[in-house]
Amino acid sequence: MADIRPFRGVLYNLKKVKDIARVVTEPYDVISPAQQSKYYRTHPNNIIRLILGKQYPSDNSRVNQYTRSREFFADWLKKDVLQRDAQESIYIYNQTFRHHNSKKTRIGFIALLKLEDFAKNTILPHENTFAHPVQDRQKLLQTVRANLSPIFAVFFDRETKLNQLLNQFSQRHRPQIVVEKDHVLHSLWRMSERKKVAAIKKLLKDKQIFIADGHHRYESALNYKKLMEKNNSSKNRGYQPYDYVMTYLVSSSDPGLTILPTHRVIKMSKISAEQTITRLKKYFQLQAFSASEDLFKYLYQKQDRAVFGVYLGRNKFFGFVAQRNLDVTVLHGSILSKVLKLNLGPGDICYTRDAQEAIKLVNQRRYQLAFFLRPATVTQVKRVARAGKRMPHKSTYFYPKPLSGLVINKL
Fold first, then answer.
1. Domain presence at residue 389
2. What is the domain count for the chain?
3. Cα(210)–Cα(222) distance, rounded to whole angstroms?
């Protein structure tokens, strides 16, 4: 079902950029304004100038962050700061990191994935998207004409044959790039041998692909493809670069595939802490805790149903169980809207993976309520996607993120 192909990747020239750690970043959507400014200062060729360029009051339709990204990209190619590989490859990508005090390794590969409408059930989303980020990424794609960061996708492979192939190759060859960033070791290999590439293509051809991260970028690439098809009237047009999007693919059986929880911290102007407790008690049996550590132990003891933690300030922690088993959907679809009757605007909710940060934001009275969630599982993501449903925004945080800047696909 899935159609992948190798490509001539664009990579930083190690003769001109000695320290790759100074030019690569996280995906654009997890970079704060402060981090953006920091990356601008870190290196004149940092990928931030391409994926998340600065905006200025003088910007217009002819000169803006998208056109500047295009000019930086063209200039770096011209000066050989970036170089396009002479040979088509699939890029094996390994990440080593620590989680819950244990060492983990996740291996996958970066290739071109043929874009398909979700209705075809070949590539499936699991999270809601918003129009503005899709439009933003589409403008960048149309202007620069390159996939600057990979989509992150998962396929289900019980036999683990593909991982065996990837591990064998990576153990026998030296990586082209090794870089440590934010306590994660990233390694990248080029795989150009036609037989090995053909073997990977064969193993993937009957797989469904589930988007783990990059929903907005996938939809923007799909929109761009449809736009280009409309402009290209030829019926026998053959292969076109815009038919594919650069994607990092990982097996669901990979022991390093990790999902972190994303907690919600909420502003409430029309409901007090006491009213919050009263409304929750009407539907749930609350259990009080005097310390966050006890609450988190409670959260991970209950595995069969949705479990939530709540913090209202002044060391008031509560936990409760709901009947359904997909925590984040229950929270947004029932608790926030129906039980608490909150009408939340864009600035009323903050997302964080750090539970202590959530507690701090409430203690500082910048927010009034924190909800702590367990991470979704890969099986839950698969079930939601196959049912044709979508989880709320920022329901999953697949960790670690693939770096932006390791490989670029020039259309």
1. no
2. 2
3. 15
CA atoms within 13 A on the CB side of 132: 2
Tell me whether residue 380 is in a domain.
no
Is residue 391 assigned to a domain? Answer: no
Q: Both tokens of residue 307?
A: 């479990």
Q: State the chain's maximal CA–CA distance in angstroms.
A: 68
State which residues form the domain around 180.
Answer: 4-258+398-410
Contact criterion met (CB below 8 Å) for 176 and 186: no
Query: What percent of the chain is modeled with pLDDT above 90?
Result: 84
Q: What CATH number is given to the structural domain containing 324?
A: 3.30.1760
Are 231 and 362 part of one and the same domain? no
User: Which among 80-94, 223-237, 332-346, 371-385 has the top mean pLDDT?
Assistant: 80-94
For residue 94, which of 161, 19, 159, 170 has the smallest C-alpha distance? 170
Say if residues 213 and 381 touch (Cβ distance below 8 Å): no
Number of Cβ atoms within 10 Å of the Cβ of 85: 17
pLDDT for the residue 240: 92
Q: Which amino acid is it at 179?
A: V
- Cα–Cα distance measured from residue 172 to residue 206, given in angstroms and rounded to the nearest whole number: 28
Does 387 reside within a domain? Answer: no
The sign of the CA dihedral 393, 394, 398, 404 is positive
Average pLDDT, the chain: 94
Q: Are residues 67 and 36 in the same domain?
A: yes
Cα separation, 3 vs 23, in Å, equals 31
Summarised one tens digit per residue, pLDDT across range 296-306 is 999 988 767 88
The pLDDT of residue 160 is 85
67 by DSSP, 3-state: which? Answer: helix
Query: What are phi and psi for residue 100, nearest 5 degrees?
Result: 55, 45
Q: Mark whether 253 and 267 lie in a shared domain.
A: no
7, 77 contact by CB (below 8 A): no
What radius of gyration, in Å, describes the C-alpha atoms of the chain?
23
Q: What is the pLDDT of residue 231?
A: 84
3 state SS for 181-221? ECCEEEEEEEECCHHHHHHHHHHHCCCCEEEEECHHHHHHH
| Residue 17 in tokens | 């950029």
For residues 7 and 194, the answer to whether their CB atoms sit within 8 Å is no
Q: Are residues 209 and 282 in the same domain?
A: no
Q: What is the mean pLDDT of residues 251-257?
A: 94
pTM (2 d.p.)? 0.93
